[in-house]
Design a protein that fits this description.
Elements: E1 8-13, H1 19-31, E2 35-40, H2 50-57, H3 75-82, E3 85-91, H4 93-101, H5 107-114, E4 119-123, H6 127-131, H7 133-144, E5 148-149, E6 153-156, E7 162-166, H8 170-179, E8 190-195, E9 200-203, E10 206-208, H9 215-226, E11 230-235, E12 246-250, H10 254-264, E13 270-273, E14 280-282, E15 301-303, H11 307-314, E16 319-326, H12 330-340, E17 345-350, E18 362-369, E19 372-380, H13 381-399
Parallel strand pairs: 1-2, 1-3, 3-4, 4-5, 8-11, 8-13, 11-12, 13-16, 16-17
Antiparallel strand pairs: 6-7, 9-10, 14-15, 17-18, 18-19
Length: 400
Amino acid sequence: MKQLANKQILLGITGSIAAYKACELVRLLRDSGSDVRVVMTQAATEFVSPLTFQALSQNPVHRTLLDETAEAAMGHIELARWADAVVIAPASADSIARLAQGRADDLLGAVCLATPAPVAIAPAMNQQMWLDTATQENIALLQKRGLHILGPATGDQACGDVGPGRMLEPQIIREQIAGLFETGALAGLTVVITAGPTHEPIDPVRFISNYSSGRMGYALAEAVVEAGARCILISGPTHLPIPYKVQRVDVQTAQQMHTAVMEEMSNCNIFIAAAAVADYRPAETSTQKIKKDQQQLRLELVRNPDILQDVTGSHPEVFAVGFAAESGSVEHYATQKLSQKKLRIIIANDISRTDIGFDSPDNEVVVYWQGGSKQLPKASKPQIARQLAAMIADHYNESQ
């Protein structure tokens, strides 16, 4: 289940005897590499102790709507923004009715209303409760709103009945959670992404570089694969693992990255230039370590090739997406770059902020295109990446 690696899953547990199965689900999600946080309703705590889920998830269990320890006492907003997906398993008949009504008078209901992440529910109840018209109407309404319904299964029930209403087995729920991230929006397309910094050597032990960690580019690579694309990631030096199903090409310098990118353009549909490429490199590289025997050392720098400019100039058919990491006048420089480099989209962020951008797990960006823009509020880079992948897919399809 590599699709679940590094995903942030918020698991809601409601009042059903099937709550004991959620223990196994937490274990399976963690074994798949997910970070799991648990929200329990009051009724759920009557079936399984919160301490059990704290031990299994290795995170505190959340139960109250107004959390004085949370920022501004709004724990539901923090959890809603944190989650890559919200999964309610088991979802009782009562919790399904409350979701259908849009109730927000408990923590789980408030989180479901506040989250931009996909929400999935795994129903668990008596077979007659499941078949009741009210429940079926609630399920239909939730599906219409975009919630994902996982199950239920048919079989023996705790009350002695046999029929539909059993919660799906945890292994099946895990598989269906993984499927939440597979959109197919970029199916059949090849996406080339650059990521990370470049290292421009001064001598055998020194180089010119920047603070880029590569996290945004790697998150985008993962997101476009989830959207169905074939992804080639051309990466400068980073310590990040290769994302699942991504073909990585390792480079060091801007010139090497330029060569690698141009070699891929003939079969590329979408190019995303997320790398922080050094604008300049030393005119000469010393073959020996430069000794500290002078008071001053002067380096002559020359311009590196403009990878993005060369892509749009030689391959105008490629849907080109750029990044603008600016420390001031962000909109001005981003829109200028959008026009000058003939890009379809540019993604801008303010690197003067210390809470986002370079070497931060979070980002906040504004996406510009000819005739429009959209701000993506602060979130984790993987969450931002999935939103960007969806936007790029929409704009690409419109351009075709």
